[in-house]
Amino acid sequence: MTYTASEVAALIGGQVIGDGSLVLHRLAPVATAQLGDLTFAENEIYFEKALKSSASAILIDSEVHNCTKTCIRVPKARVGFAKVLALFFPEPSFPAGIHPTAVVDPSAKIDPTAHIGPHCTVGQNVEVGPGAVLRGMNFIAADSKIGEATQIFPNVTIYAGTQIGKRVRIHSGVVIGSDGFGYVFDAGHHLKIPQVGTVIIHDDVEIGANTTIDRGALEPTVIGRGTKIDNLVQIAHNVVIGEHSIVVAQAGIAGSTRIGRNVILAGQVGVAGHLEIGDRVTVAAQSGVMHNIPEGQKWLGSPAQPDRTAKRVILASLKLPEILQRIAKLERDSQPDTGQTE
After folding, report:
1. Can 65 be counted among the known catalytic residues?
2. Is the dihedral of CA 237, 238, 243, 248 positive or negative?
3. Which phi-psi region, left, alpha or beta, contains residue 173 (left: φ > 0; alpha: ψ -120 to 50)?
4. Which of the two residues, 334 and 274, has the higher pLDDT score?
5. Which residue of the set 237, 244, 274, 291 is catalytic?
6. DSSP characters over 29-91
7. pLDDT value at position 62?
8. How confident is the model at residue 57 (pLDDT cuts 50, 70, 90)?
9. CA-CA distance, 13 to 131, in Å (whole number)?
10. What does R_g of the chain's alpha carbons equal in angstroms?
């Protein structure tokens, strides 16, 4: 699909500088861009490289000036980049209807515009909303709801009673609603605590491949609107994550912890159970969170601490070899002279 520079600008809310009738065939990085391509530059360094490239047009932000090629100016180049990618690489479309190999319970309510792909299983009283797509080999257990325009990639398992909102994207290998890890020690063995809660996924959430989200013991596990969860994340029972938060790969959140809005948990962060993490908190990679974190703070380390404290600890630890050498020397120098004289 091709667009003129003016069409691209109109679709992403930009302004053309130069030839608006220029036809653009694709979006390409600076290093491989050819004639007819649009590239992007989010700062002056990349802009200089883009000017020297073979690209016919450049997507720039408001901080870039003196454009000698056709340019499309937007408030933020990276936001514009995301919007342009969606133009040149649109999502695949799926025909409405139910594949002949799918098994759909008669009580399920499938919107006529939804797509149920090959080898899907749709259980009792499941509801699948308008434009929703089950791409194939998906298992949707009884009483679950799939919202409008939600995309479920192959090999996703959704346990009974899960509620999924609109425009959610769930990638391959995800398991939602499996039992929370709840046991009580009784008479010499671990007695299972039945997990009878549900999972609620609000609108515009994205869940990465092979992530697992456990159902609650009584109350639901909740993922807030607009939150993005990376691959290989474990979210335990009764966790609540607020709106527009980010959870990066291999993070784990233990049971009944509450995560605020606009929180960032970086890669391999571990959060203990029954904690409160405030709004706008950032936790650095590989940190182990064992205490509540007030809103707006940055923590790091294991055990995690406020960033300034943790950085002082790290800097001090770097001096330990030198300090130990000094202590050893002081101990040697302080030893009494035991030599005997005649």
Report:
1. no
2. negative
3. left
4. 274
5. 237
6. -GGG--TTEEEE-SSHHHHHHHHHSS-SEEEEETT-----SEEEEES-HHHHHHHHHHHHSPP
7. 73
8. very high
9. 26
10. 27
In this predicted model, what pLDDT tens digit does every residue of 151-161 receive, in sequence order? 999 999 999 99
CA distances from 93 to 116, 122, 132, 151, 254 (A): 13, 21, 11, 11, 38
CA angle, 133 as apex, 169 and 111 as ends, to 5°?
Answer: 125
What is the amino acid identity at position 339?
G
Locate 170 and state its tokens: 């769930």
Superfamily of the domain at 97-307: Hexapeptide repeat proteins (2.160.10.10)
pLDDT cut 90: percent of the chain above it: 83
Question: Could you give the 3-state DSSP secondary structure of residue 322?
Answer: helix
Note whether 228 and 247 are within 8 A (CB): yes
Token pair of 319, please? 């001096």
The CATH number corresponding to 3-88 among 3.40.50.300, 2.40.50.180, 3.40.1390.10, 3.40.50.10190 equals 3.40.1390.10
At 274-293, the pLDDT tens digits run: 999 999 999 999 999 999 99
Tokens representing residue 140 in the block: 């949707």
Dig out the tokens for 55 from the structure: 């690209």
Contacts of residue 31, Cβ cutoff 8 Å, sequence gap at least 6? 53
What would the two tokens of residue 187 be?
A: 């008479």
Per-domain residue ranges of the chain: 3-88, 97-307
Residue 108: pLDDT over 80: yes
> Residue 83 has which token pair?
């919007």
Half-sphere exposure of 64 (CA within 13 A, CB side): 28
How far is Cα 28 from Cα 265, in angstroms, rounded to an integer?
A: 31
